[in-house]
Specification:
Elements (H helix, E strand, L loop, with lengths): L4 E2 L6 E2 L7 E4 L1 H4 L8 H4 L5 E7 L2 E6 L10 E2 L2 E4 L2 E2 L6 E2 L11 E5 L4 H4 L6 E5 L8 E9 L3 E12 L2 E12 L8 E13 L4 E15 L6 H6 L20 E16 L4 E17 L3 E22 L2 E24 L2 E26 L3 E18 L6 E8 L3 E11 L2 E12 L3 H4 L13 E14 L4 E13 L2 E5 L5 E5 L2 E17 L5 E19 L1 E2 L2 E2 L11 E11 L3 E10 L2 E2 L7 E2 L2 E14 L2 E10 L27 E11 L2
Parallel strand pairs: 7-11
Antiparallel strand pairs: 1-2, 3-10, 4-5, 6-9, 7-8, 10-11, 12-13, 12-40, 13-14, 14-15, 15-16, 16-17, 17-18, 18-19, 19-20, 20-21, 21-22, 22-23, 22-24, 24-25, 25-26, 26-27, 27-30, 28-29, 30-31, 31-34, 32-33, 34-35, 35-38, 36-37, 38-39, 39-40
C-alpha cells in the first residue's frame, strides 16, 4: 500500500503522504472474489457499503449516503478516466460498467466539494487503464449458481507509448428471487498516446446495454414465508411479475483528455465528453421512459515550484456539465405502455470553479487549502399540459472550503487533520416524485466535516494501518420516502449528527521468493458509525435522536490471502454487519448477519501464457439477509433478500503478444 500513488485531491503522492480519508481498491483486491462484480471488493473498505437489491440494481453508500438513493448512485461524484461519470442531474449509472472496466478505484470519503463540486457523499475516481502495459489477448469466463454467466474478451495492441484496448463483456443471471433476471453487454475502446515528451492523449468510447428485472420489496411476513418471491399483488396493484417490472438501460459515452506539460512548472489536464442514456422502467404503477443526452468537461492547471527545502503546488480549474433530458410517465398496463400521464423537458446544468494550494515544508509538514464555488440550475417544463408550465429551480451554493494539515512523524507514518464544508443540491430524480409529479420543495444539504487520521507502515513495511475519525454535522438532510402506491419522493429531514471511526489494518506474514509459501497476508477492516437525527420533526412526529436509516452501527470485514510458490492460492473473507434501521421511527430493523466466502485457485505464468483457474463460495453459512433494503417504504415493504449459499467457478487465459 505504501507504493500506491494516489490521485485524489490532485495529490499524485504515496498514500501515506495524503492528508485525507482515501481508500484504494486495487486490481488484486478486485480479483479476490468471483470476477462478476466490484461490490465485494469495495465492501472490504471501512466506511464504504455497496448494495445490490437484485442483479444489476446497485447502490453505493459512503458514510450513509444511500439514504438518498432508492436506486442508483446519488450524492457521490464519480469520475471515469478524468471525465465525470455522474451526469448533470446528479445521478450515476455505475451499473453501466462491468467488472472488467475497472483496473483500480480511489474512494474519497467525506466532503470532497473543494475540488469535486457539490456533493457531500464523497467521490470515486475510476481508472480503466492497466498500470503496467502488456500487449496481448485475454479471455475470461465465470459461471455460478442461479445460471449466472460472465464472458469477457480483451485485445491490447501497441506499446507503452501507444496503447489500444478493445474489450467486450457479456453477463447474464436468472437471479435468486422471482423477477430478478439480468443481462448486460458492454463494448469499449480505449487508447492512450504519448504524442511527445510534453503531451499525452487519452480517448475512450463505451457502449452498454443493460436489462434487469426488479422484484420489489417484501413485508416482513412475506420475507419470512418465502424470501425468494417477488412482490405480490395487493388490492388493485399488480404484482411485480404482472407489471413486468424491470429496467431497460442503454448508454453511450465518448470522452477525450489531454495532458500537456508546458514546462517544469506548468501543466494542464483537460477532458471533454458526451453521453446519452436511454432509460425505460415499467414499474408497479408507472411506466417511465427517459432520454438523457448530456455533455461536459473539466480542466485543471497545475503550477509546481521548489521553495528551499520545501515545495509549493497550486491547482486551479473548472468543470461544467449540461443536460437536455426528456421524461415521460405512462400508466403501466401489465407491462405495456398505456395512457400518457406526464411529459417533461428538463434542462439542467451545473458548473464549478476551484483552486487548491499545497505547501510542503521541512520537518514533514504539509498544508493544504482549497475551495470551490458551485452553481446548479434545473428548468422543468411540463409539455403535457396546455399551456406548458415551467418550474425554474436555482441553487446558488456558497463557497465549499477545505483545510488540511499532515505531519510525518516517522519516514512511513503520518498524522493528519482536516476541516471542510460542503453542499449537495437535490438531484433531478429527487426534485420529482417517481410518478413524474414535482415533489415537495427541497433545499440543498450543507454540512461541516472534521477529520483526524493516522496512516503508515511499521515493522519494515509488513504492517500497514489506516485509522480515521470524523465528526460531520449536516443540515437539511435529504431522505427518501415511499408511499403506499410505491411512489418515491424526497424531503428535507432537518439536522443529523454523523460520527464514526474507520480502521483498516493489514499484516504481511510471509513475503518471499523461495520456500513453500510465497505470500501470506491477513487483514481486517472495521467501521463504527454513530448517525442520528439531531433535529427532525415531521408534522407532529419527532424523530430527533433516532438512528439514521440505512447505516449499520458496526461492520467488520476480515480476510486471509495465501499464495503458494507452485501457484495455488486462496482468499477467505468474513463479514459481520450490525442490524440496520429501516425507517425514520426506528420501529423496524433488518437483523445482523455474518457471511463467509472463499476463493480457491491456481494462477501460473507459462511462457507467453498466463492462466488462472478458480472456484469459490459465497454466503457459506447460508444466512438469510438483505444487501439492499428499501428504507422508509410504506406498508412495511422494506425487505429485499440476497442469495443464500451459492457457488462459482471461472477461467482466465492471457496470451502476451510479441
Amino acid at each position: 500500500m505504501n507504493e500506491v500513488v494516489v490521485k485524489a485531491y490532485e495529490q499524485h503522492r504515496k498514500l501515506t503522504e495524503v492528508g485525507a480519508p482515501v481508500s484504494i481498491v486495487s486490481k488484486a483486491s478486485l480479483n479476490r472474489f468471483g470476477n462478476m462484480s466490484i461490490l465485494p471488493a469495495l465492501n472490504t473498505n471501512p466506511g464504504v457499503r455497496m448494495e445490490e437489491r437484485s442483479p444489476g440494481s446497485y447502490r453505493l453508500n459512503i458514510r450513509g449516503s444511500s439514504i438518498r438513493s432508492p436506486f442508483g448512485v446519488r450524492d457521490i461524484k464519480i469520475y471515469w478516466n478524468e471525465i465525470p461519470l455522474t451526469d448533470p442531474g446528479g445521478n450515476t449509472y455505475l451499473n453501466q460498467l462491468g467488472f472488467y472496466n475497472f483496473q483500480s478505484l480511489e474512494v474519497i470519503k467525506g466532503t470532497a466539494g473543494s475540488l469535486y463540486g457539490a456533493g457531500i457523499g464523497g467521490a470515486v475516481l475510476i481508472n480503466s487503464m492497466p498500470s503496467v502495459w502488456e500487449k496481448g489477448i485475454s479471455a475470461d469466463y465465470s459461471g455460478g449458481s442461479y445460471n449466472t454467466n460472465g464472458l469477457n474478451l480483451n485485445v491490447r495492441v501497441g506499446d507503452d507509448e501507444h496503447r489500444n484496448i478493445i474489450s467486450y463483456s457479456h453477463q447474464t443471471s436468472d437471479g435468486y428471487r422471482q423477477q430478478s433476471q439480468m443481462r448486460r453487454d458492454i463494448a469499449s475502446w480505449e487508447t492512450q498516446l504519448k504524442a511527445s515528451e510534453k503531451q499525452t492523449i487519452h480517448a475512450y468510447i463505451l457502449y452498454g446495454d443493460l436489462y434487469y428485472q426488479t422484484p420489489g420489496g417484501l413485508t416482513l411476513a412475506e420475507y419470512n414465508k418465502n424470501p425468494r418471491q417477488a412482490r405480490p399483488a395487493v388490492g388493485t396493484q399488480p404484482s411485480a411479475i404482472e407489471a413486468q417490472a424491470a429496467i431497460y438501460q442503454k448508454n453511450f459515452t465518448a470522452g477525450f483528455s489531454n495532458e500537456y506539460r508546458f514546462s517544469g512548472h506548468w501543466e494542464n489536464t483537460t477532458a471533454v465528453y458526451g453521453a446519452y442514456t436511454d432509460f425505460t422502467n415499467p414499474g408497479i404503477r408507472v411506466y417511465e421512459t427517459r432520454q438523457e443526452p448530456h455533455f461536459g468537461g473539466r480542466t485543471v492547471f497545475r503550477y509546481k515550484t521548489e521553495l528551499g527545502t520545501g515545495s509549493l503546488r497550486i491547482d486551479a480549474g473548472a468543470e461544467a456539465q449540461r443536460g437536455f433530458f426528456e421524461t415521460r410517465d405512462y400508466a403501466n398496463k401489465l407491462g405495456v405502455q398505456d395512457t400518457l400521464q406526464t411529459d417533461d423537458r428538463l434542462g439542467n446544468w451545473q458548473y464549478l470553479a476551484f483552486v487548491q494550494a499545497d505547501l510542503r515544508l521541512s520537518g514533514g509538514w504539509t498544508f493544504t487549502a482549497g475551495a470551490s464555488w458551485n452553481k446548479t440550475a434545473v428548468d422543468i417544463t411540463r409539455v403535457s399540459v396546455r399551456p406548458p408550465v415551467t418550474h425554474p429551480l436555482r441553487f446558488d451554493n456558497k463557497l465549499a472550503p477545505r483545510f488540511a494539515v499532515l505531519k510525518k512523524i516517522l519516514p512511513e507514518v503520518s498524522l493528519y487533520a482536516s476541516a471542510a464544508r460542503g453542499f449537495s443540491t437535490p438531484t433531478v430524480q429527487e426534485l420529482e416524485k417517481t410518478n413524474g409529479v414535482v415533489g415537495p420543495p427541497l433545499q440543498p444539504e450543507d454540512g461541516t466535516d472534521y477529520e483526524f487520521g493516522a496512516r503508515g507502515n511499521l515493522l519494515h513495511g509488513r504492517l500497514f494501518f489506516d485509522v480515521n475519525a470524523f465528526f460531520f454535522h449536516l443540515n437539511n438532510t435529504i431522505v427518501q420516502r415511499i408511499d403506499s402506491f410505491g411512489i418515491g419522493y424526497s424531503i428535507n429531514a432537518g439536522k443529523t449528527d454523523q460520527h464514526g471511526i474507520e480502521t483498516y489494518i493489514s499484516y504481511q506474514l510471509v513475503d518471499q521468493s523461495t520456500g513453500f509459501f510465497g505470500n501470506v497476508r491477513a487483514w481486517v477492516s472495521h467501521t463504527w458509525h454513530d448517525f442520528h437525527y439531531r433535529d427532525f420533526v415531521q408534522d407532529t412526529t419527532s424523530f430527533s435522536g433516532k438512528r439514521l436509516p440505512s447505516v449499520p452501527p458496526q461492520t467488520l470485514v476480515g480476510g486471509l490471502d495465501v499464495l503458494l510458490q507452485l501457484g495455488l492460492y486462496t482468499n477467505v473473507t468474513y463479514t459481520y454487519t450490525d442490524r440496520i434501521a429501516l425507517n425514520d421511527a426506528n420501529s423496524a430493523f433488518a437483523g445482523s448477519y455474518a457471511l463467509l466466502g472463499a476463493r480457491l485457485g491456481y494462477r501460473k505464468a507459462l511462457g507467453s501464457w498466463k492462466l488462472d483457474i478458480f472456484t469459490g463460495v459465497d454466503n457459506a453459512f447460508d444466512r438469510r439477509y438483505g444487501l439492499g433494503n428499501d428504507f422508509n417504504a410504506a406498508a412495511g415493504r422494506y425487505y429485499n433478500a440476497s442469495p443464500g449459499r451459492n457457488y462459482y467457478a471461472g477461467l482466465s487465459v492471457n496470451y502476451r503478444l510479441p
